[in-house]
Design brief:
Elements lengths: L2 E6 L4 E8 L2 E4 L2 E3 L10 H23 L8 E7 L3 H18 L3 E5 H13 L5 E5 L4 E7 L2 E7 L5 H11 L8 H9 L12 E2 L2 E2 L2 H16 L5 H27 L3 E5 L6 H13 L3 E3 L3 H4 L3 H13 L39
Parallel strand pairs: 1-5, 5-6, 7-12, 12-13
Antiparallel strand pairs: 1-2, 2-3, 2-4, 7-8, 8-9, 10-11
C-alpha cells in the first residue's frame, strides 16, 4: 500500500493531507483571513503559512495515526499560485523529504483539484469545470493531457466574486464567496449585468468594473439591496459558466460534468449545472468544501497517481512556478498550465 503526504499552500490556505491507495487518512487546513474590504498579500500570506505549517503537519500525522517512517512519498504544489506562499510550502516539503529520506513529487495545483474530484466522486471521464480564485477553465481529458476547451481571458470567477465582496465590505470569514452565496439567497430582484461569453471563453473584468461602478449608487438610491446585487452577480457569472460547460460537453460527447475548485462548492452553481446536465441526460459530480477548497489531500492524491507510475522530482528540479497565463497566446517559459502536464497515469 502506498502512502503519500501532500503539501498545499498556493494561496491563502495551507493544508497537509495524507492519502493511502485512494483513502484520505487526514486533511487538516488553516486559512489566512483578512479584514473585510481587504485581499491577502503574498508576503503576509506566506508569513501566516510559516507560522502554522509545522502544527498542521503534526495534525496530519496524528489524525492519520502514522509516523514519518510510514510515508512513502512527499508531494507538494509546484504551482501555479502566489510566489511567496508557494516557496514557503515547497521549502518545508523539500526539507521533510530529505529529513525522512523520501522521494519528492512536484504537483500542478489544477491537476490536484481534478484528481481529488475524480477520487471522491467516482466520475470516470467527465468534462471538468475548474473554478477558483485564481483559475476558470473548462477541461476534458484526451491523449495523456487535460485539454483546456475554454477559460477566462482576464480574471478568474473567484477573483471577481472576492473583489465584489470588498466593494460591499463583506466579511472574509470563512470566505467572501461563501458569504456572497448566503446573501444571494435573500435576493429578490435581478439586476441586469454584462454577460460576456466569447466562443468557449469567458470574461469577468467587464462585469466586475460595471458592478463596482454602480453598486453604491444603486444601494444609496434604494434601487436594489446588497442581497439583490449578490444574487444578480451569481446568476450572471454562473450562467456564463454553465453555457461554456454545456458547449464543451457537446463537443466531447460527454455525459458527465465534474466541478472542482473553491467556487465549486457553491450550491447555486451546482444547482444550475445540475439542471443543465439533467436536460442533456447527463450527470453532475461535485464535492463539498472539504475537497473543493484548496487542501493537502488533493496534492497527495495527484502525487500518489504520479508516484505509482514512477514519476518523481529530483531535488535540483524542485522549484516553484507561480506564473499561469490565461491564454496560449501569451507565451512564457515559466508558465505552468494545466494542459502542459503529461498525464502518464491515465490510459
Amino acid at each position: 500500500m502506498t502512502v503519500v503526504i501532500g503539501f498545499e499552500g498556493s494561496a491563502n490556505k495551507i493544508g497537509i493531507g495524507i492519502v493511502r491507495d485512494g483513502e484520505v487518512l487526514s486533511n487538516p487546513r488553516r486559512t489566512y483571513i483578512t479584514p473585510p474590504g481587504q485581499g491577502f498579500l503574498p508576503s503576509e500570506t506566506a508569513k501566516h503559512h510559516r507560522g502554522v505549517i509545522l502544527t498542521v503537519l503534526q495534525e496530519a500525522l496524528d489524525e492519520a495515526g502514522l509516523k514519518p517512517a510510514d510515508i512513502d512519498c512527499v508531494a507538494y504544489t509546484k504551482g501555479p499560485g502566489m510566489g511567496a506562499p508557494l516557496v514557503t510550502v515547497a521549502l518545508v516539503a523539500r526539507t521533510v523529504a530529505q529529513l525522512w529520506g523520501k522521494p519528492l513529487v512536484a504537483v500542478n495545483h489544477c491537476i490536484g483539484h481534478i484528481e481529488m474530484g475524480r477520487l471522491i466522486t467516482g466520475a470516470m471521464n467527465p468534462t471538468v469545470l475548474y473554478v477558483s480564485g485564481g483559475n476558470t477553465q473548462v477541461i476534458a481529458y484526451s491523449e495523456r493531457r487535460y485539454r483546456i476547451f475554454g477559460e477566462t481571458i482576464d480574471i478568474a470567477v473567484g477573483n471577481c466574486l472576492d473583489r465584489f465582496a470588498r466593494v460591499l465590505k463583506i466579511s472574509n470569514d470563512p470566505s467572501p464567496g461563501y458569504n456572497i452565496e448566503q446573501m444571494a439567497k435573500k435576493g429578490k430582484q435581478y439586476v441586469e449585468l454584462p454577460y460576456t461569453v466569447k466562443g468557449m471563453d469567458v470574461s469577468f473584468s467587464g462585469i466586475l468594473s460595471y458592478i463596482e461602478e454602480v453598486a453604491h449608487k444603486m444601494l444609496s438610491s434604494r434601487q436594489c439591496t446588497a442581497e439583490d446585487l449578490c444574487f444578480s452577480l451569481q446568476e450572471t457569472v454562473f450562467s456564463m459558466l454553465v453555457e461554456i460547460t454545456e458547449r464543451a460537453m457537446a463537443h466531447c460527447g460527454s455525459q458527465e460534468v465534474l466541478i472542482v475548485g473553491g467556487v465549486g462548492c457553491n450550491l447555486r452553481l451546482q444547482e444550475m449545472m445540475g439542471v443543465m446536465c439533467e436536460e442533456r441526460g447527463g450527470r453532475l459530480f461535485a464535492t463539498d468544501e472539504r475537497f473543493c477548497i484548496d487542501n493537502g489531500a488533493m496534492i497527495a492524491q495527484a502525487g500518489w497517481e504520479m508516484f505509482r507510475v514512477g514519476q518523481t522530482t529530483e531535488l535540483a528540479d524542485s522549484w516553484i512556478t507561480q506564473r499561469y497565463t490565461f491564454t496560449i497566446l501569451l507565451q512564457s517559459t515559466h508558465r505552468y498550465r494545466t494542459d502542459e502536464v503529461e498525464v502518464t497515469w491515465r490510459d
